[in-house]
Amino acid sequence: MKVAFISLGCAKNLVNTEQMMALVRDAGHTITAEPDGADVAVLNTCGFIDSAKSEAIDNILELGALKKEGRLGKLLVAGCLSQRYQDEILTEMPEVDGIMGTGSYTDVVPALEALASGDHPRYFGDIQHTDEDGERIVTTPDYTAYLKIAEGCSNGCAFCIIPKLRGRYRSRTMDSLLSEAKLLADRGVKELIVIAQDITRYGEDLKDGSNLETLLKELCKLPFHWIRLHYLYPEAVTDSLIATIASQPKILHYLDIPIQHCNDRILSAMRRRTNKAQLTELFAKLRAAMPDVVIRTSIICGLPGEGAEEFEELCDFLREAKLQRAGIFQYSREEGTLAAAMEDQVDDETAKRRVELLVDLQSRVMDGYNEDRLGSVMEVLCEGFDASAGCYAGRTYADSVDVDGKVFFTAAGVIPAGTFVNVRITGTSDGDLTGEIEE
């Protein structure tokens, strides 16, 4: 069969898609990224918050339209949306021919065979016991790849549905990770992005002495140029971990640390394990150990109980902390979470307005960071020539894939994608940097 794959949501979901692709290829089928003309489209969905659910449903409807026109054979929906709404999808979306939950990625080949025989497969394996060590067809550019070190989450934040969709936290073994990382390095990957729902708790469940520090030190022995870390939970960032990150040249001084809020009462309601004073202390430690550290975070506006006073405190905190990168999200009331049942729900318009105010505040922080880069020379990973800009584009250590800005720069010669170059920063443009290659 000719099988198209579409992956929505986070990088962790993308890794599962890449694993499914390898299984399908090894079974003798043809892989394509284009559903038009495919026998089957496999849609790996996100179902975390309302916007992700809407995106998944829109994709199902678009693929259904292709089916109706005779340009696509069957539609198999996998991932978080199907795990969360399996009955609703089957009863309300006739476009879908089969579904698989987050515990059944490895069942993709039997599911395809069932579709081919005219059945409507429904695979929902144990989300607490999944195979995360399978081979992948890496779909990111040759120079960048993700290394997913764990699945699930056991933190139990009040606003989050992920433990019910992905199961408890499960670390992969050190041996399996180092074997996969070596394969990626051998293929020419230069930027390794270490991911999990929470990388700081890596190894705690294995009870064999494995931990993030040991893993990072081993990864640094491999010929990567950059090692980037997503996500570190603030309460688990120890002095020892800070020292390891600061002392290893390959580990980028770019740390994604989701804090969600700063008000102590809101943090407690979220079931987070830090308070404002601890967050302030952590950021001070990081900046003392790594003066050039760039901190990225996630913020939720509009959690139940967040009043004007708590929101103003959050604004003041972000002005003072000057975290260079931040994703600002409106609270999404998700059924099945503790926060959904809380009193004092914030109305949508108020929450939306708070998001807009924080985005504006944060853009000024980012503009200040960019202006401070003017005149400096920064190492840039070239991602190729951008025809619309008429110059090359790339990223510094301060910019992660798809979530941060870029550097647009000119060069006299040809710069292949995946090349590291030194760029003198000469300007800023809508949150991005501009410059010229330093010969």
From TrEMBL:
Residues involved in [4Fe-4S] cluster 2 binding: 153, 157, 160
Q: Where is the TRAM domain?
A: 371-439
Enzyme Commission number(s) from the entry: 2.8.4.4
**Catalyzed reaction equations:** L-aspartate(89)-[ribosomal protein uS12]-hydrogen + (sulfur carrier)-SH + AH2 + 2 S-adenosyl-L-methionine = 3-methylsulfanyl-L-aspartate(89)-[ribosomal protein uS12]-hydrogen + (sulfur carrier)-H + 5'-deoxyadenosine + L-methionine + A + S-adenosyl-L-homocysteine + 2 H(+)
| InterPro entries attached to this UniProt entry | Elp3/MiaA/NifB-like_rSAM (IPR006638), Methylthiotransferase (IPR005839), Methylthiotransferase_CS (IPR020612), Methylthiotransferase_N (IPR013848), Methylthiotransferase_N_sf (IPR038135), NA-bd_OB-fold (IPR012340), Ribosomal_uS12_MeSTrfase_RimO (IPR005840), rSAM (IPR007197)
Q: Which residues bind [4Fe-4S] cluster 1?
A: 10, 46, 80
Q: Which residues form the Radical SAM core domain?
A: 139-370
The membrane spanning regions, by residue number, are none
The protein in question is named Ribosomal protein uS12 methylthiotransferase RimO
Q: Which organism is it from?
A: Candidatus Flavonifractor merdipullorum
Quote the gene name from the UniProt entry: rimO
